[in-house]
Every structure is written in structure tokens, then in C-alpha cells.
Write a structure and sequence with these properties.
heterotrimer, A mainly alpha, B alpha/beta, C mainly alpha, A: MetI-like fold, 15 helices, B: alpha/beta, four-stranded mixed beta sheet, 11 strands, SBP (chain B), Bact_solute-bd_prot1 (chain B)
Chain lengths: 302, 423, 322
């Protein structure tokens, strides 16, 4: 794997000048309208399922299964309070639990994956390629194959029925996806900048915190938001490691509305599914701001 | 949370040692139960949890025994139970299902309940007593009963101009009735939901002739001829329109509300009593449940276990678990707490106690169960292990035949090969 | 060409990186190695403490007959022999998975990249567009999507109703063996949000001075894209290609959309990991399933290695010269 090789002459300049305005702002009006139309068309396709879910949370159960329409024939909000109250301790508690786990996972991934990625992207040490290949190999094994040994391990550690199995691994950089992502972003930063900082007396810690981290803001934001969303959606982890209803997360709570061996409450399921999207959507929108704050706005002034 | 020396060693020197200790039966990991407490697991949603929590709270109040509850949604329940059991960390009291319990019992994961003096299995109906039994061992006591029935959509039946028989009738008569219904209903609606892939229905068909589906030693009693006749019956029904074409059946696979029966696109269909109750809650169109094809001299139906209570083989507090099972089945207040929320109660006493207090659909299901009680023949033994696999296999074979990607004879051969190698 | 222009610009580190004496260099290298391992410490702890053990265990189990509840029994290569020589379901599931990977990954990446490029600009409401386009990915393989997909691609579904308007007779896309998989491919392409966001982040990370310089050079829009944007984005394209391929090989939840996890109709959506899961958790054949898992690792590793080797030809890193 030829990922990590020698440094060389640099193809780009160090951004010493204040960054200029982004060039894309000058698109002509006709182009702009066409672009909007295209994007609206795509959005119609992607927003459809949410609208359908919203509709399904408002209509009688039989209608959910009989029509792909997004227009409700009746509007009955009763599924919202009913779904919120169902499955004590209820959706409010599940949401709170999910947020705790997600927060832990986000912090863990941000800290551990950036450290690991920096080492792989910027430092030279013996066996580096081997470790990098091994790191990638860890994501190739399907999760079901390691489920039982992993559970045994966490049982032996006494961590079962706590949030530790869901959070601690993130602090130990077990999420190779993000390590690799961050490596790719860090490698897009000219090495020249590190060298300049080194001359200014920065060590590796200084380069890491003052050069690399600010310049990978979009990647860090991506890591944060994906970790949040994927942890939030995770069903298998909480299912296996949590046993007390009071500690359950949102996906477990949602599945309780569907019971193949008994009655299901589909209307409430859809109501709570719609509601459960609110936190992720908020996180996503907040992250939008960080996503566009890369080199362009962070800059390296002074 | 005891941390053993072995665990520390394992963590310290790499995890393999700990894994070997905890995961693969070299030594047993400590169970999390503490004295005076018990772990219990079951599947279900709001309704099941509410019922069991009320009954368990009452029990704790009375006896002081704390019950740690690990209630789970049906989705994922078996993944977690298998994982916990493999890691020797299964809860003490376990809700089992009829189709799954053989796999656990056969591999020594469950305790023989006949060893528990405080649990009298004979409290449940006679027809259900042997359900969790293999020879003289008992691995589960029925928690809730169910039975297969013929569910019909009243409006569609009327529109089709047919009458669902109340007396003994044969599978051929069902086929004729289904064809007649399709003729009455026209395109896009059919007589009976495709049950060719339903092992339970095939077992009914085989038992109709008076023999058992499985011999007492767990080998298959059914013959290739019977399976050929069965698959042919359904293949012809699909061709004639008595049963829906395969894509319609496949479209509704695994989701009762999307199934042809749920959508009122067939007049009749075989379903469990709990499915009947769930279907009734879907919409306002009336449905009824009646006896599927059966003969009076050889009753083919049986009282079935929708769920069973079992105790983990590694449970340190099995006696307490046994007492708790007894309480759930026999205590009048517990019976009131549970109602029919786990399914039909497995004791006549409980059903008598609840009679008159139920909603129409559960009441109809309960009446149907009483009817089955008089026209059924208990199974000779618990399903052998591999039953769940065989069940999946039959539905795959029927589907392959229906889509004409496999012939009936090839399917039959595949079925019996799997049945033989499974044991 | 415009990159060549850039090369002439000042490189502040260059003068300082002049010839050094050897002992200093060696000391420096050693210090860098120590620092490297220090940065890797959390990862190592996780690897040794949490990851390697279970992986080694599953590798061991692949040489055993293990039914989860009783002790594993060593059978040597028997599981592998059976899988590779006498298991039609293995071949079926591998075929389904490979088709899925080969078709869905390029389509998904192309759509994600295209939309990311369109949206990488200051446009009114752009953040709303981005968020809405991510919606399908938020829903994943939930019950809602499963129900919706049936109503879109079923016999009386919305797709067929649209086709009927233009006089085309549809079919039951989701429940016919020939077309079931393609509805899952459509689902995968429709959930293009994650790679799109990563592309967007990559585009945001490009130094804008480059565009400035090239614009001054008089390079046109298309040329700038071809010669500047695209080369600088190759590490991110490469990342998405690798990770999306691995993810697609392990696709598990989509099979619950159509068949509720049976792999039907007639095995047409029997994904590899679904088959593995069935062997492990419904047939209690964990030894066999572990062998299936390691065969998948071998397949994915090979594809990944080939991709890495090929990447030398097309992936451009700013931290190394060309």
C-alpha cells in the first residue's frame, strides 16, 4: 500500500495572503435559476420519504399500508402524545440516553481518530505501513463474526449494561473509517506548512494543534456529525450491551412499536420516527456552518 | 461485578485468554445476578411490558425478590439471547418461542424444569403440558398459547359468494372453495393466501392422515409423496387463481399489514390466533377465525405454545426462577395483570377468570382456542432442533417452485436431504 | 500546467531543509518514531485490548465446528472446503453481493460527486438543499423505508402508476427475482448523502488561491475543474471509493427492506453478510459463519489492495511530489 511515501517538492503555495472571496459567487442569473430548479428536483426526490412518514403518522393505520401518497386524507396528531407516553420510561428518556452516548462517541472519535490519523499522515516510524494496513483490515471483518467474542470480553470487564462498550472503544480509535478519512484530509495539506511551523519552533504537538487541526476543520466536522448520526442510529450495539429499559436508546425504543408476535402501533412508530429525526437534523444543520469553514475562512493569518 | 484473576490476566496479556475463558465454555463467566435478585428477559412492546412489569412489581412487593428486567423488542431478541447464552451470561428466566426452544434445549442451554420442586407444570392445559418436553425432560412451560386458524375477511368472503365450512372439511375442499372465490372476485383478488411454504400448514396436512409429522425420536415421519402432493396442490392453486401469484405473496413477506390477508386481497388465509388479533386491529373491516381443513377422526390441530418460560442452564437461582414461573401462571392477581397481553393464557382457570372482560377480537380468539381445545390432538414431542431451519427451507422451496426457478421434485429432494442432514 | 506556475512560488521550508549532519538526522528520526508511537498509543490500546482478541477468536472459530452453546470442536479446513466446493448459497450470495458492489458503488459515487460539485458554491438556501439531500441517508434501513419501498416498487406501486401514464406496463419490481436487487441498488444510490458530504468537505478544504491563480492565468471553468479541482480531490475520491466498496460488500440492512431478512424472492437478495448472519444466528453454525467472514475479508482485502496499487496512478497527494 503506497499511501505513505516520501515528502517532495510542493505543488501549491502556502496561503500567506488573506484568502480572497470565493469565486463561485459570480454565477450568472440564468445559470443560477437552472441550478435552483435542478437542486429542487433532487430535493423533491430525497424529501419524499420524510413527507410520507409525516403523513403516515397522521392517518389511520390501514392507510399507511395502502398508499404512497404524501397527502394525508385526515390529520390526527394523537399518535404524537400517545407515542411519547408509550413504552415507559418513554421516548424523552430514550432521546436523552441517545444524546449521552452520542456525545461520548463524538468526543472519543474526535480525540482518538485525529491523533491516530496524524501519526499515519505525518510521522515516519518503523512498521507504519503494516499498522496502517492492519487498521484498514479491522473494518473488513463483518461485525457479526466478532459479536460474541466482543460481548464475552465486555462481560468479563464488567461493562455490560453500561454505556462503556458504546463509548470507550471510540476513545481507543477503533473507528477506522474516520482515521482513514482524516489521514486523507491531512495528506492534502502541504507539508511545507509543517516545516514552516517547525522553524518557528513548533514540535509535533504544536504542528498538530496549530496547523493540522485548524486546516482539517471540514473533516473534523464531518467526523463529528457522522459519528453522531451513526451512533444515534445504531441498533445492534445498544441492543446487545444495554439490558435495562431505562438505559435504552432511540432505535431500541422505536423497535418496541413493532411486534411480530403481537400488536404493532405503526402510527405511533411513524410519529416517533419523525420526532427522532429532529436532533440529528439539528446537529446536521449546525454542522453546515463548520463544513464551510475550511482553509477559506480559518486561514493562517499571522 | 466480580473480576476474576483470569479476567485480569486476559485483559493484561491480550484478550484471547479472557475470551477463551468467557466465550467458549472453558470456564463460566460470572452471572450478574446477586442473591435476592433475578434476571428475566422477554420480548414485546408497550402492552407486554406493562403487563409483566405490573405482575413482577407485585411479586417483589410480596416476596422481596428483585427482578431485573431485560425486556427487548422482538427484532433483535434472538440475536441478543444467543449472544448472552454463548457468553454464559444468559438471564435466569427466559421467554422462549416454540420454534426456537429446540435449538436451545438440544444444546444444553436450558435447565430441565422437572428438577424444580416449586414448579408444577401440570397447571397448564393437558394439551400444552408436553409442548416443552423431550422424553422425560421439560425445557419450557407454556406462557401463552395459540393455535393456527383460518382467518377470513368477512366482506370479501361475502362478495366472493362462498361459505367457509364449519364442519370437518378437506384440503381439496379448501382448494375448490378458493377457486370458486377467485371466480367470484375476479382479477387481482384471490381465494386463499399461499400457504404452500408454511410448514405449520403442511404439518396439519400430514397429521390429517392420523400420523405424526415427527417420529418420537425426532426423525421425519412425513413422506416425499406427501410433500409432492402438498406443493402440487398449491402450485395448481396459483395457476388457477385460487391462490395469489408469487410476486403478490413475496411483496407481503414478513409484514402482516402488507400481506394479501392484511390487505383484504384474499378471502381466507391461515394465521396464528395472535395474528388474527393483530389483523383485527388494522382496520374496521370485520374478520373471523374458524377451523382450517380438518377431519373429526384424526384431529390435526394442536394447542401450540406462542411463548414459553424457560430457565437458563447456568442460572444460579433456578429455584427462585421456578417459583416465579409458578406465580405468573397460577396467581389470580398475576393472571389479571397479564390478561391476554402475552397471548391466550395457557390454563383453563385463567381463561375462565378473564372471560367476559375482553375486547371483541381477543374474545373471538379465546373462543376459537376453546374450540381448538375440543378438536385437537397434542403433539407427540417438542420440535427437534433444526425445526426453525426446516421451516425457512420450506418457504424457500415453495417460493422457488412458484417462481418456476425449481421443480417440485427438486424441491422435495432438497427438503428431505436437509431434514436428514440436520439431525 | 497551472500547477507548474505554482511551483515557482516561494517555498519557505526549502532553505531550512538543507543538508544536515547524520547523527542529528538519526536522532531526529528516532524522536519522530517515538512521537509517532505516542500518537498511536490510544489506537494500540484499542487494537490490543478490544479489537485483536475478538478477531483472533473468530479466526480460530473458522477452523472449528461451533454451535454457540457447546464447546467448539477443531475441524481444520473443513468449513473452508465445504464453502468453496459444495455450497450453492455461498456462490449465490457472493454473486448477489458482487453485482451490488459493482453497480451501486460507481453510481452512488458519481451522483454524490456531481451534486457536491453543484452545491459547492455560495447560493441562497444551499444549506437547506444539503440537509434535505442527506435525508434518505438518515432513514437508513428503517421500517419506514421498508414499507415505503414496497409501495413505490410493488405491483400497484407509485412507479407502476407513473409508467402506466406513459403507457408502459410495469411489473412487481420488488417481488420478482429478476428485479428485486435493482430496487435495492436504487435505494443505495438514493442514499448518496454520506459520500456527498465527504466530497463537500473535501472541496471546502481546497486552497482557494489555486483557483485565483488559475483564473488569473485565464484558465476556463472546465479546465480549472479538470486540472486543479479534480486532482486535488483525488485523495477524497479514493477514500470514498475504498470505504464505499467495503461498506457495500458488507451490506446487510438493505436485505431487510424487501425480504424481511430471508434473502428472497428466490435468493435474489441474499447478500453475503445476510447469509453469514443466517448461518451464525439462525442455524447456530458459528464456525462455518466465521469461515465465511474470513473469506469475505480475503475478498475485500484483495479488492482494496488492487485499489491501492492502482491509486498510485491517479491519486495525487499534496504532501508528496509528482
Amino acid at each position: 500500500m503506497a499511501l505513505l511515501t516520501r515528502p517532495g517538492p510542493l505543488p501549491v503555495t502556502a496561503p500567506t495572503d488573506p484568502p480572497p472571496e470565493r469565486t463561485a459567487g459570480r454565477t450568472s442569473t440564468v445559470r443560477r435559476v437552472l441550478l435552483h430548479l435542478l437542486l429542487i428536483a433532487v430535493c423533491a426526490l430525497t424529501a419524499y420519504p420524510l413527507l410520507w412518514m409525516l403523513r403516515s403518522s397522521l392517518v389511520p393505520t390501514e392507510e399507511i399500508f395502502s398508499s404512497p401518497s404524501v397527502v394525508p386524507t385526515t390529520v390526527d396528531w394523537a399518535n404524537y402524545p400517545a407515542g411519547w407516553e408509550a413504552n415507559p420510561p418513554g421516548m424523552g428518556r430514550f432521546l436523552l440516553n441517545s444524546l449521552v452516548v452520542c456525545l461520548g462517541a463524538v468526543v472519543g472519535n474526535l480525540v482518538a481518530c485525529t491523533l491516530t490519523a496524524y501519526a499515519f499522515a505525518r510521522l515516519r516510524f518503523p512498521l507504519r505501513r503494516l499498522w496502517f494496513a492492519l487498521m484498514l483490515a479491522t473494518v473488513m471483518l463483518p461485525a457479526h463474526a466478532t459479536l460474541i467474542p466482543q460481548y464475552s470480553l465486555f462481560t468479563a470487564l464488567g461493562w455490560v449494561n453500561t454505556y462503556l462498550p458504546l463509548i470507550v472503544p471510540k476513545f481507543l480509535a477503533t473507528d477506522a473509517f474516520f482515521i482513514f478519512l482524516l489521514v486523507q484530509f491531512m495528506r492534502s495539506i502541504p507539508r511545507e506548512l509543517d516545516e514552516a511551523a517547525e522553524i518557528d519552533g513548533c514540535g509535533h504537538v504544536g504542528i498538530f494543534t496549530r496547523i493540522i487541526l485548524p486546516l482539517t476543520t471540514p473533516a473534523l466536522a464531518t467526523t463529528a456529525v457522522f459519528t453522531f448520526i451513526w451512533t444515534y442510529e445504531d441498533f445492534m450495539g445498544p441492543l446487545i450491551y444495554l439490558s435495562d429499559l431505562n438505559s435504552y436508546t432511540v432505535p431500541l425504543g422505536l423497535r418496541m412499536f413493532v411486534n411480530s408476535m403481537g400488536e404493532s402501533s405503526y402510527g405511533q412508530l411513524f410519529a416517533m420516527s419523525v420526532l427522532s429525526l429532529v436532533p440529528v437534523f439539528v446537529v446536521f444543520v449546525l454542522f453546515q456552518r463548520r463544513l464551510i469553514a475550511g482553509i477559506a475562512t480559518t486561514g493562517l493569518k499571522g | 461485578m466480580q473480576i476474576t484473576r483470569r479476567t485480569l490476566l486476559g485483559v493484561g496479556t491480550g484478550t484471547v485468554a479472557a475470551l477463551a475463558a468467557a466465550g467458549c465454555g472453558v470456564g463460566a463467566a460470572p452471572s450478574a445476578s446477586t442473591p435476592g435478585s433475578l434476571r428475566a428477559t422477554w420480548w414485546g412492546g408497550d402492552s407486554e411490558n406493562g403487563a409483566l412489569n405490573a405482575a413482577l412489581d407485585r411479586y417483589t412487593e410480596r416476596t422481596g425478590l428483585q427482578v431485573q428486567r431485560e425486556s427487548l423488542p422482538w427484532d433483535g431478541y434472538w440475536d441478543k439471547l444467543a449472544t448472552q447464552t454463548a457468553a454464559r451470561n444468559a438471564p435466569d428466566l427466559i421467554m422462549q418461542a416454540g420454534s426456537q426452544i429446540p435449538d436451545y434445549a438440544d444444546r444444553g442451554a436450558l435447565l430441565d424444569l422437572s428438577s424444580l420442586s416449586d414448579l408444577d407444570p401440570s397447571v397448564v392445559d393437558e394439551g400444552l403440558r408436553s409442548f416443552g418436553a423431550v422424553e422425560d425432560q421439560l425445557f419450557g412451560v407454556v406462557a401463552a398459547a395459540n393455535a393456527t386458524g383460518l382467518v377470513s375477511s368477512d366482506e370479501v368472503v361475502e362478495e366472493a359468494g362462498i361459505t367457509v365450512p364449519e364442519q370437518a372439511w378437506s384440503w381439496d375442499e379448501l382448494a375448490e372453495l378458493a377457486d370458486e372465490a377467485h371466480r367470484g372476485l375476479g382479477d387481482d383478488r384471490w381465494g386463499v393466501a399461499d400457504a404452500g411454504g408454511d410448514l405449520i400448514a403442511f404439518i396439519l396436512y400430514v397429521r390429517d392422515s392420523g400420523k405424526e409429522f415427527y417420529a418420537d425420536d425426532g426423525t421425519l415421519n412425513a413422506t416425499p409423496e406427501e410433500l409432492t402432493a402438498w406443493l402440487t396442490l398449491w402450485h395448481e392453486l396459483r395457476a388457477s387463481g385460487g391462490a395469489p401469484p408469487p410476486d403478490v405473496t413475496a411483496e407481503g413477506a414478513g409484514s402482516l399489514p402488507s400481506s394479501p390477508l392484511g390487505q383484504h386481497r384474499v378471502a381466507m388465509g391461515l394465521a396464528w390466533t395472535q395474528d388474527f388479533v393483530a389483523l383485527a386491529a388494522l382496520d374496521d373491516r370485520p374478520r373471523s377465525i374458524s377451523l382450517p381443513p380438518h377431519s373429526t377422526e384424526n384431529p390435526s390441530l394442536w394447542m401450540n405454545a406462542a411463548s414459553l418460560w424457560s430457565v437458563s442452564a447456568t442460572s444460579p437461582s433456578s429455584a427462585a426462577a421456578g417459583e416465579l414461573i409458578s406465580y405468573l401462571l397460577t396467581d389470580t392477581e398475576a393472571i389479571t395483570d397479564l390478561g391476554v397481553r402475552l397471548g391466550m393464557p395457557p390454563t383453563q382457570a385463567a381463561r375462565d377468570q378473564l372471560a367476559g372482560s375482553l375486547d371483541p377480537a381477543p374474545q373471538a380468539a379465546m373462543d376459537y382456542m376453546s374450540l381448538v381445545a375440543t378438536t385437537s390432538r397434542p403433539l407427540n414431542r417438542l420440535w427437534p432442533s433444526g425445526f426453525a431451519e426446516l421451516r425457512t427451507l420450506l418457504s424457500e422451496i415453495n417460493e422457488a417452485v412458484a417462481f418456476e426457478s425449481s421443480s417440485i421434485s427438486a424441491g422435495v429432494e432438497q427438503f428431505f436431504q436437509a431434514a436428514e442432514s440436520g439431525e | 500546467m497551472s500547477l507548474a506556475v505554482q511551483r515557482g512560488a516561494q517555498t519557505p521550508g526549502a532553505s531550512a531543509a538543507g543538508p544536515r549532519r547524520r547523527p542529528v538526522a538519526r536522532l531526529r528520526r528516532r524522536r519522530e518514531a517515538v512521537t509517532g508511537y505516542a500518537f498511536l498509543l490510544p489506537w494500540f490500546v484499542g487494537l490490543v485490548g478490544l479489537v485483536v482478541g475478538p478477531m483472533a477468536m473468530s479466526a480460530y472459530l473458522s477452523f472449528t465446528e461451533y454451535d454457540l452453546f457447546t464447546d467448539a470442536r477443531w475441524v481444520g479446513l473443513e468449513n473452508y472446503r465445504q464453502i468453496l466446493t459444495a455450497d450453492p448459497d455461498f456462490r449465490q450470495s457472493l454473486t448477489v453481493t458482487v453485482v451490488y458492489v459493482v453497480v451501486s458503488v460507481p453510481l452512488r459515487l458519481a451522483l454524490a460527486l456531481g451534486l457536491a460539485l453543484l452545491m459547492n458554491r455560495a447560493l441562497r438556501g444551499i444549506s437547506v438543499y444539503r440537509a434535505v439531500m442527506y435525508l434518505p441517508s438518515l432513514l437508513g434501513g428503517s421500517v419506514a423505508v421498508a414499507l415505503l419501498w414496497r409501495q413505490l416498487f410493488g405491483r400497484d406501486g407509485a412507479v407502476n402508476q407513473l409508467l402506466a401514464l406513459v403507457g408502459v406496463e410495469g411489473r412487481n419490481w420488488i417481488a420478482t427475482p429478476d428485479t428485486a436487487l435493482s430496487t435495492i441498488v436504487v435505494l443505495a444510490v438514493w442514499q448518496f448523502g454520506s459520500p456527498m458530504i465527504i466530497f463537500l468537505a473535501g472541496l471546502q478544504n481546497l486552497p482557494p488561491e489555486l483557483h485565483e491563480a488559475a483564473t488569473v492565468d485565464g484558465a476556463g471553468r472546465w479546465r480549472r475543474f479538470l486540472w486543479i479541482t479534480l486532482p486535488l480531490l483525488t485523495p477524497i475520491i479514493f477514500f470514498n471509493l475504498i470505504m464505499q466498496t467495503i461498506t457495500a460488500f458488507q451490506a446487510f440492512t438493505p436485505s431487510f427492506i424487501i425480504s424481511n431478512g430471508t434473502g428472497g424472492p428466490v435468493g435474489s437478495t441474499l447478500f453475503y453478510t445476510l447469509y453469514l448472519y443466517q448461518r451464525a444466528f439462525t442455524e447456530f453454525d458459528m464456525g462455518y459463519a466465521s469461515a465465511l467472514a474470513w473469506i469475505l475479508v480475503a475478498v475485500i482485502a484483495t479488492v482494496t489492495a488492487v485499489n491501492f496499487i492502482a491509486s498510485r496512478r491517479w491519486v495525487f497527494y499534496s504532501d508528496e511530489g509528482r
